[in-house]
Write a structure and sequence with these properties.
It is a single chain. The chain is α+β, with helices and mostly antiparallel strands. It contains 1 helix and 5 strands, in the order βββββα. The radius of gyration is 13 Å and the shape is globular.
Length: 75
Amino acid sequence: MKMTIVTDVHGNVLGAVQGHKLSENKDGVEASVSFSPGHATHMVEVDDDLTTVDDVDEFQQRLRRHLQQHQQQKP
C-alpha cells in the first residue's frame, strides 16, 4: 500500500497519509494536505495491514522501519 510519511527537520516521524496523492478535486471542491516548512514527505510502500494497527507505538515503530528501508534504497 502506498503511504506518505511526514518527518520534521530532525527526522522524527510526525504522521502519515494513506496514498501518494496529497490533493483531491471532487465535484468542484478541491482539498489538499500541506505541511509546515522544514517538514519532509517520504512516499513509500508499506504493509497492507498497517491500516489495521490500533496501537500508536506499534504504528509509529512500523512507520519508522518503512522509512529507514526507503532511505536505504535511495542511491
